[in-house]
Structures are given as C-alpha cells and as structure tokens.
Fold these 4 entries.
Entry 1:
Amino acid sequence: MNKRTLFEKYGGFAAISRVVLSFYNDLLDSDEVGPIFDDVDMGGLVDHQTKFIASLLGGPSSYTQAQIKQIHERISITDAQYDETMKILADNLLSHGFSEEDTSSVMRVLEQHRDLVVGSA
C-alpha cells in the first residue's frame, strides 16, 4: 500500500490554498516581514506559494533549487525574516489542522531551503 503524501492527507490544492491565503494575511500584518510585500503582486505570489508549499508536502508541483534561489535573488531576506516567516507558516499549518509532527516535518524541509532564500540579494 502506498503511503499518502502530506499533500494528499491534508486535502490537496484547495486546502493548501486556504493555508497560504491565511499565511499571507498574517505575513502582511508582521512588522518584520510585511514590508517585503509592499510592491508585490499578491495574487501571483499566492499562486506560486501555493504550488511551492504543495511541492513541500509531496504534491505535483516542484521547484528546483536554482529556481528558488533565482526568485529570491532580488530580495534581501534576513535570517530574522526567514525565522518569522517559518513561525507564521507553522502557526497557520497548525490552525488549519496539521498535526505538530507534520508541521515540524514541513519546517525541517523549509530549513533546508534557508541558504537559497536568505541573503541572496
């Protein structure tokens, strides 16, 4: 029997989209991270982030490390901003019914992406 991915376990794109919308609402309210998005097309970003989070959960979309680095090259993201973003995402995953174990799993994968995002500019 095949093991279900977290993407399948938590309801696929529709469920992940709800998490990402909530996540960005909280990010925009953050004094640490919110200003990063002042001039960003949020509709497009939410779409990309939904696909990215889906891929982290074993869903069908995927991004290469080169693509992740390229996306963040023009943004000066600090470790503090990355930490805040991870905390807000973890809070949103938990509030949308993700278990603590699965949320920790997602955070471990995101931590592996830190060097591709932080200080890329």
Entry 2:
Amino acid sequence: MKAQLYCDGASRGNPGDAGIGCLIILDNKKIEISEYIGKTTNNVAEYTALIRGLEETLKQKVQEIEIFSDSELLVRQINGVYKVRNKKLIPLYEKVKELLTKFKKYQIFHVYREENFIADRLAKEASWKQKK
C-alpha cells in the first residue's frame, strides 16, 4: 500500500505550547492527526509530527510513502544535505531514520506552507489544546 503524508509542527513562542498535525492520504481514506505535545520548539514539533505520521502509516500497513513538509531544515536533514547538530533533535532524527527503514520505499519533499495547509492548520489548532 502507498500513502502520502503531509506533516507539520507548530510552537507558539518557540519554545512554547506546541502541536503536531498530519494528513495521511491512503488509497481512498484520509486520516487527520492533531495533537498537543507540550511546551517545546518548532523544530522538535516538526520532527514529532513526522514520527507520529510515520508510526500511523506503519499501523496502516503502508509500504511506500511520500512525505511532504514545509520545514526545509527537516527535509534537508532527513535527505542528508544538512547534519543534525542540535542535541534535542538528534534522538528524534535517529527515530525518524529507524522508522523509515521499515518502508520499502520513501521520498521526502519540501513544500511551501500553502501546499501543506491542512497539516499546518491541524498543528496550529493542536497547539491551543493545552492539557490540564
């Protein structure tokens, strides 16, 4: 099975209240994820969104995936163009790389926010869902 994953993270304050958003498009099904993740940076939220989206697609038995993110940093780090130097991002990067080995094929693309508007909206909405 093939899927497309649109993912985004949002942090109000950077660091601040943060949320993740994912839109997964399977053959004839769409899955939306919008979750509050606590106070963190935007880059941590971006990675957390990607991890959550990958985990969900693996649950759906997806074997090939196209990933779209408006975080140029994340896309370039995953594609090996940039090194990951931030100590908070290194374990998240390693988790992403581990999850990606479970797919037969994957590609990750940078897109503009306008092309990622659903995941962007889901992440921003989630950043307001503070846990009590």
Entry 3:
Amino acid sequence: MDSDTVIAAVSIFTAGITIAIGSVGPALGEGRALAQALSAIAQQPDEASTITRTLFVGLAMVESTAIYCFVISMILIFANPFWNHFLQATGS
C-alpha cells in the first residue's frame, strides 16, 4: 500500500467518524432539549412563547455543531490540505 492510498483511506475514515459523531451528538441534544421544553410548557402553559423562543435559539446552536462537522468532513474529502502538501512533496 503506497502513501497515496494511506492518506486517502485515513481522510475518508476520519470524515466518516466526524460526520457520525457530529450527527449523533446533536440529535441526542436536540431530542433532550425538545423533551425538556415540552415538559416545561406542560407545567407552565402561560410561558409557552418564551420557552418556545428559547428552545428555537438553542436548537439552532446545537444544529450549528452538526453543520460544522459536515463542513469538516467535506474539507477532509474534497479539500484536504495534507493531500495537497503530499502531492507537492512528491512532485505529482
């Protein structure tokens, strides 16, 4: 196995791990936040608008983590700086 194959395999594996962890973590966090918000609304229906607004802001912040992981995995696959460095070092 040559160096090209190793760098490509490690990049693809790392991108897969990144998107796997980056999608499972925010999904669990969003589910927990939604369950807590519904519980809070059930206990205090008069504060539903405030709880809902805060929930949406929190969900947006949690979702941004998943988007960051997606961007990192796309960079690892399509614009890997190590790949470009390796190609320049070998003269290819």
Entry 4:
Amino acid sequence: MLYQQIARNKRKTIYVMIGFYMLVGLMGAALGYFCYGRPSVGIAIAIGIGIFYMITTLSQSTQIVMKMNNAHQVTEQQAPELYHVVEDMAMVAKVPMPEVYIIDDPSPNAFATGPDPEHAAVAATSGLLQRLNREELEGVMGHEISHIRNYDIRLQSTALALVSVISYLANFSVNSIFWGRVNRDDDENNNSAIIAMILSLLTLILGPLAASLAQMALSRNREYLADASAVELTRNPQGLINALKKISNSEPMKNANTSSASLYIADPFKKDNWAHLFDTHPPIDQRIKRLEEM
C-alpha cells in the first residue's frame, strides 16, 4: 500500500511537470508570434530566461527562503531535541544532516528547502517545539526529511523558477503592447493571422494562472507522498496523525511568506478557499484518512 501510493504520486508529479514545461514553451511561442511574428524567437527567449532563473533559484534557494521566513539557524546546543530528531530521521533516510532553523512563531508548522540533499535545510516554528511531543515531532521531521530524500525540495524550487519565468514572459508581453512592440507584418485581412494573434494573446494572459494552478497541484501531490514516506521512516503513522491534528487546530502563522507557503507541512494561513483548485495543501482530514489506512 505504501509503495503503491509513492509510485502513484510520483507518476502524477511527472505529468504535472511535463505540463509545466509545455506551458513555458507555449508561452514563449505565443510571445514570439505576438511580438515578432516568429514563435521560434519566443521559445529561444523562454529557454534563456528559464535557464537563468533556474540557476539563480537553485544556487541560492536555502538562503532566500530562510530569510523570507525570518528563520535563524540553530546548533545542537541551542535546540538539542529538534537537532537530535532531525539527525535520527536523516540517518534512517540515509541523507546528509541538513542545517536546522527555527522560526519564532507560536503557530506549529515546519518546512524543508534546498537545491539537493547535500545543501538542504529544515525549519520548525517555536510553536511546533512547544506543542508537540517527541513522537509527533518525529512524524513532522520524518515528513520534511522525506521531502529532502525524495528531491521534492529541488522540484519545488524548479516549479518556483518556472512560475517566475512565466510571470516574466507575461509582463514582457504587456510591456511590449504598451510600447507598441507588436508584430504588424501580417495583412489585416488575413483571418488566420488575426485568429493566431488572439490565441497568442489569450495564452499570455491565462498562462500565469495555469502555472499557479499547476504549482498548487504539484504541492498537494508531494504532501501525500511525503506523508507516506514519513511513515516509512518512523514506522509509526500515529505520531504524524496526532501532529497534523494539533497543527490543523492551531491559529494561523503571523510572519509566513506568501510565496513560500506551499513549502510548509500545512497551510500557514489557514485559508478556507471556496475552490480547492487554489489550495496549496491537501485537506488535513484526507491526509489523516490515508495515514490511517496504512
């Protein structure tokens, strides 16, 4: 059951990432046609910007995310219980010991980030350390170490870079329209050219929304997989179940960063969206139900 769930979630993630890259290519083609009359030019621009954002994001992801969330690094002497739990989970998962951070916030929550297991870091709020017992803390840290072991952290950084690329392409097209840098070579009576121009414009407008929805779907799938992987590490689903119940029944975080909200083990803002398409995390009750079935 556990390995079937892991395999299912990995397949879903691959489908979402393929859609992501296709969307970047489509946005680039639309930009190229709309502004220059040549889709290949836009695709080349999209690839160039994508590589730049990817390198920048992956090389500095840990420092950027920790600074955005006001997290400070701690040593074994400063936070011995958290440090030892992270060390135990990393040892079981056979990944290098990550850097350990604490966020001064009374709401219980945690996340992992980094470009790869060799340069990863985990962060826990002060509220998490105050409210969870060791069994529950192991469940949460097992979840975060699973994100590191499964390379979710790199996947999330990649998705963040791709969303940034798509947003940049959309803004670039808007500026091009504003400054009049659009392709005017086509005959105004050419219906095919007009239809292609409209479709290109719609792609540039709707692209960022589609990218955000794909990023949220990707985040939801990875949370299910990390829950299953945490049980594989701890051999104790009840610890994570109890932790998720405590986290879901707590107040929202005060200083969480919006752009990194999808990294946390649970939505730090406790939003109640009318449409689950816009959720960054799967419902807690569904996660608990899956854990109880293991």
